[in-house]
Design goal:
Blueprint: H1 12-21, H2 24-29, E1 32-37, E2 40-46, H3 60-76, E3 83-94, E4 102-112, E5 116-127, E6 130-145
Keywords: Hydrolase
Enzyme class: hydrolase
Protein name: Medium/long-chain acyl-CoA thioesterase YigI
Length: about 150
């Protein structure tokens, strides 16, 4: 059952796009937003050699970063305009090796308290037109007052 959330900031779409476009590491990995709604964010990355580990699989760090940053984007849709979200902790289950030409992530908020937001991020690998669920992360975020643009 999907929960419906309302955005507190009418400019939440701009906020989330800035979360992605102004993060140098996300730009390095070339992670992109696919779609955004209050409490949800879908993202993807086209797999290149730079994303692979020594055995030719997608590096767990790429999978974890995709899950974590997408969770931050989903949580970021629900906070006020003077707040930012920061990761408190995350746990990831790597269910299968990452093989394919693309990874996609579905991040959905399942708990939203006054300051704590918990998000599930499911990561899928697309290989030869088939999709496999390769990871699930549970990411706990905290909403704090600060500037997402100056590190404030």
């Amino acid at each position: 059952m999907s929960k419906e959330f309302k955005a507190k900031d009418p400019n939440y779409l701009d906020r989330v796009h800035k979360i992605f476009h102004q993060a140098n590491f996300i730009n390095l990995l070339e992670i992109q937003i696919d779609s955004v709604a209050p409490g949800e964010l879908n993202s993807f990355v086209e797999i290149k050699d730079k994303h692979l580990q020594q055995n030719g699989y997608v590096h767990a760090g790429v999978i974890s970063t995709l899950a974590d940053h997408s969770a931050g984007g989903a949580a970021g849709t629900l906070v006020g305009e003077k707040q930012v979200v920061l990761t408190l902790e995350f746990k990831i289950n790597l269910l299968r090796t990452g093989i394919g030409n693309r990874l996609r992530c579905e991040a959905k908020v399942f708990y939203h308290g006054a300051t704590v937001i918990v998000v599930n991020s499911d990561v899928y690998a697309i290989h030869r037109n088939r999709e496999k669920h390769i990871a699930r992360a549970t990411v706990t975020m905290m909403a704090v007052v600060g500037s997402q643009y100056s590190g404030g």
